[in-house]
Each structure stands twice: as structure tokens, then as C-alpha cells.
Amino acid sequence: MLKLDFHPAGRHYLQIPGPSPVPDRILRAISYPTIDHRGPEFGALGLKVLEGIKTIFKTRHPVIIYPASGTGAWEAALTNTLSPGDKVLMYETGHFATLWDKMARNLGLQPEFLGLPGIEGWRRGVNAQMIQARLEADSGHEIKAVCVVHNETSTGVTSNIAAVRQAIDAARHPALLMVDTISSLASADYRHDEWGVDVTISGSQKGLMLPPGISFNALSPKAIEASRQSKLPKAFFGWAEILEMNKTGYWPYTPNTNLLYGLSEAIDMILAEGLDNVFARHQRLGEAARRAVRAWGLEIQCVDPEVYSPVLTGVMMPPGVDADMVRRVTYERFDISLGAGLGKLRGLMFRIGHLGDCNDLTLMAALSGCEMGLKIAGVKLEGSGVAAALDYLAGQTVPALAKG
Ligand code: PLP
Questions:
Q1: Same-domain pairing of 294 and 205
Q2: Which of 226, 223, 228 shows the shortest CA–CA distance to 240?
Q3: Are residues 187 and 222 in the same domain?
Q4: Nearest residue by C-alpha to atom 12 in ligand 1
């Protein structure tokens, strides 16, 4: 039973790939008093976050903010643009791609799930050639959308979205491109406009460093045009009314006021660090984590170095070792939460999250917890991953953090 009166010393290490730890500055912003969501102050807040979030998606077009988790924004993307029975091409990169495919089926769409057999596709990124070949075969243009997950949170693989765009263009196919960036936005380089994405889906609880509870649809003019023809039922998630009200900074329903305070703060923090610095920090942390895994003599879930995730690292267990046992031992002894293997990878791997409000020392603490936890769990290690990560991080040149 949860003992609410027990306070373990120090902070809990929330090293799952989202929700990620919420910085104190954001927690304080969220604690401001709730205001009238139809009053003048709210309109100013609404306009600020609606404009600011465009910079994070790298778009000039509207971004919708929903008081819903990422799953709601997945549904919004599909129901606003498509009609019952429409064919959509989805790609199996892992557990989250599988859940999105299931949702499409439940909504009355006809998804075709491309991918490699077994867990092979769960160790690599999207194969753009397969998408191109499938679209070229669709001479009647029955496929209305291509849906891919940018950062597959269940595996630690970040697919090449520019290559998917090129594949659609090379096939001269008019399908919409929809991309899930729920675990990559504000952590991995992402360019909604430049990569010609029609709907980008994202969430608050990962790179944006907010608690769960808000999610996003970044739109293209083509997506807005498609929404005027789309026939799938939509009410709460319908774009048209929200876009109209957002022009003055308001929503057609009661928005998540306090999370929007937090979003405003998060955007300020990310832009002050600089998006490129944020991406470089995540790349550095990812590289350090992977060096640790290799030094332990364990396998990284992602087998293609071109698409290693800067957000999380999937660590495969040697045969016969239950990853959930390792996670449990590590949690009980060191108060650190590691991500579980999901779907086809249940029990076979654990995931180290290194996203959001995470720096070199946060990662080193997490890797220390993993290394000690693996030893306690009886996993034979070849060497010290902590030492390998330290050596790497100490050799990196990064912008000074402390000014003095
Ligand atoms: N897509 C990806 C890539 C995710 O990582 C998640 C959640 O972790 C989701 C979709 C579902 O989002 P939510 O749990 O916020 O509904």
C-alpha cells in the first residue's frame, strides 16, 4: 500500500521516458491562482502560448492545444481529417505505433500496418522505401494518410521524417502526413513546416517538462482544407470552432488554465536555453547512456546508429533475466523509476529516460542506479558503464551552465 506519510531522503529519480520530472520553476507557475477563462488576462495568456508553441514545432501555422493526454490528440488528428472507411498507411515501429493503428481501426478507418516481422521493426526506424513502394502501388490514391511515430518511446528509435516526406513526394501521392512527436518534441530536432508534415501530434509530459494533461495538433493548410471535407464524427476535438476562438486567445470550453501557465514558463525556458542547445544536450545524454550500456556488455534495443533516440535508451537483458525484476530491485533500493518493456518487449528490456529537465549529473545518477541495480539483480556486467559515461561527458564541450 502507498505510504503517503513516508518521505525517502532526496528526490525520486523519475527516469522513465515520460512523464519526465517537472522543474520547480514550472511547478511554481502552475500554482498561480486559477483565473477566469473568459476574462482579459486569460486572453493574453492564451495568445502567448498559442504563438510561442509554434516556435517549438517550427511552424507558422496554427497549433491546437487540447486539455487531453496525447491519445486524445491522436484521435483529433484522425477524426478531423478523415472519413469512415478511409485507408491509412501506418508503420509498425513499436508499441505506440501499434496503439495508434488500433485506434484507427476502432474509429472505422482501414489502416494498413506496414513493418518488419517479429520485433525486427521494433529495433529500427521507419523504412521510407517501403512507404514509397506502397504509395506507388496505390495508383487510385485510396490511401488518405501516412501515419508515423517520430520517436518510438517503447524502443528508443527516432525515425527520419524528412525521408518519409521525400518518399511521399517521390511517389507523387497526395496522402496527408501525420507524425506523432509525443516523446520527441522539444528534445529531438523537429521541423513541422520544413518537413511538410500535415498534422503533428504531441503531448506535454515529456520534452516540454510539464505534467500530463495537455496535448497538441500542429496543422498545415492542407490539413485544415481536409478537415472541411472530413466526415468522421468529431465534437470536443473539432478544429473549426477551436481555431475560431483561438484567434482571440480563448477556447470553446474551459481550458486547462494552470497547465497553460506551466506551458508559458516551459516555452520561455526552452527558448532561453535555445532549441539547438536543447537538442545537443539530449544528443549528448543519449550518447553517454549508450556508452554505458555497451560498457556493461549489454545490447541497445535500437540496432541502427542512424536512428538512436536522444530521448531514451532501451537496454536489452541477457537471456533468462527478467527486466522487470531488475527494475523492481533498482526501484526498491535506489528510489529510481525506469521504463518497462512494453508490448512485444515486455520483460525483455528496460528503458532509461534522459529527456526534458535532465542534465549530465542527473543522467550519471540514473546510470549509477542502473549499474548498482543490475549488480544486485545478479546480472553479469563486463565493465563499468558509469565510468564510460563519465569519460565521455567529461570530454564534451558544452555551454557554461553556472555563471559566476
Ligand atoms: N505516442 C507516444 C510516442 C507516446 O510515448 C505516448 C505515451 O507515452 C502516447 C502516444 C500516448 O500518449 P498519452 O499517454 O499521453 O495519452
A1: no
A2: 228
A3: yes
A4: 70
